[in-house]
Design brief:
The protein has 277 residues and is an alpha+beta fold. Helix content is 30%, strand content 19%. It folds into 2 domains: 130 residues, no CATH class; 122 residues, Nucleotidyltransferase, domain 5. Strand 1 and strand 2 form a beta hairpin.
């Protein structure tokens, strides 16, 4: 399992290990969680989220602060993902932990049972945390593994009036293009079509010129070497999955975890769509 840190605009995940028991010891109640979050948000002492100053701050009871410059009252929740929420801060911390360590994902229904809040509140917490991960607008660079997959319900599980009756495989599903920066970030984007023009336009927008792109031999990737990329392929049809440093196993593993995660967050109430972190 992973240790994690919280920042006002997102989550930072590190590679060290922490157990659930250790987490409970660190944050047994709301006050310990508040102290931790204040230390992360204000390492040099409390600062007003309205005027940005920290020289004329008066500390009050219950985690409240008063800015004597702009006369505003605030807490560690003000201007963060915790704002306008009555969920105790130590439950927020535990929700962060569950979100980043649940390999197969976690539904709002499961989270509500884990931390003792309503399903509606759990949905709100998960939505805020997923939004906090946010899109990284910086392009991927270096060695990029790229592949596509299809996401969606099985035709056999649909009502007869909604079945397309057009065969198996991608029928009734959404095409998703996955791009994995070797040792770095991941971008997965739904695409309207999986043709060459759509796929390569998406790659150009998301991958920095000069990067090395690893794909399979699908026709949609033909010509990438002529678009300021170094293009390497593996021939899956011939049973080739790794050749020296050329492989798409990384992005395929991402898709495997993603699909298991979609199963893990399934519940009687649908979840909102969310970005990969």
């Amino acid at each position: 399992m992973l240790d994690f840190e919280h920042e006002s605009e997102g989550l930072v995940v590190s590679k060290s290990t922490i157990s659930t028991f250790e987490l409970f010891e660190m944050f047994p109640d709301q006050e310990t969680a508040r102290g931790y979050l204040e230390g992360r948000l204000w390492p040099q002492g409390a600062r007003c989220p309205v005027c940005g100053l920290g020289e004329r701050i008066t500390e009050r009871k219950g985690g409240f602060y008063r800015c004597n410059q702009c006369k505003e009252d605030f807490t560690v929740r003000t201007g963060t993902i915790f704002e306008r929420s009555h969920v105790p801060l130590h439950k927020w911390v535990y929700a962060m932990y569950l979100l980043v360590t649940a390999r197969k994902g976690i539904s709002s229904l499961q989270l509500s049972k884990e931390i003792g809040i309503t399903q509606k509140s759990a949905w709100f917490v998960l939505h805020r945390l997923r939004e906090a991960c946010g899109p990284d607008l910086e392009k991927l660079r270096g060695i990029i593994e790229i592949d596509e997959t299809y996401i969606g319900g099985l035709e056999q599980n649909k009502h007869v009036s909604k079945k397309r009756n057009a065969g198996r495989g991608s029928v009734g599903k959404t095409a998703v293009l996955g791009m994995r920066e070797r040792g770095g970030r991941i971008i997965a984007k739904p695409v309207t079509r999986s043709d060459k023009g759509t796929i390569q336009t998406t790659i150009i927008r998301q991958v920095e010129a000069g990067s090395t792109i690893n794909t399979d031999e699908a026709g949609a990737y033909d010509g990438l070497s002529m678009l300021a990329f170094k293009h390497e392929t593996v021939n899956h049809k011939a049973g080739e999955f790794v050749r020296d440093d050329v492989t798409t196993n990384g992005i395929e593993s991402v898709f495997a975890v993603l699909k298991r995660g979609l199963i893990g967050v399934s519940s009687r109430k649908p979840e909102a769509s969310w970005p990969l972190c």
